[in-house]
Amino acid sequence: MLNIAGMSKLSTVDWPGNLSMTLFLQGCPWRCNYCHNSDILDPSVPGEISFEEDVLPFLESRVGLLDAVVFSGGEPTLQSNDEDGGELLQAIRRVRAFIDKTTGKPAFKIGLHSAGAYTNRLKIILRELDWIGFDVKAPVGMYDKITNIKGSDLVGMRSLQTVLQEQEFRKNTDRPLSVTFRTTIDPTVMSNDDVKRLVKQLSEKGIDNLVLQDVRTIGSPADYPAKFAKATGQNIEEVMR
Ligand code: SF4
Question: What digits encode the pLDDT tens for the residues 136-156?
Answer without folding.
Answer: 999 999 999 999 999 999 999
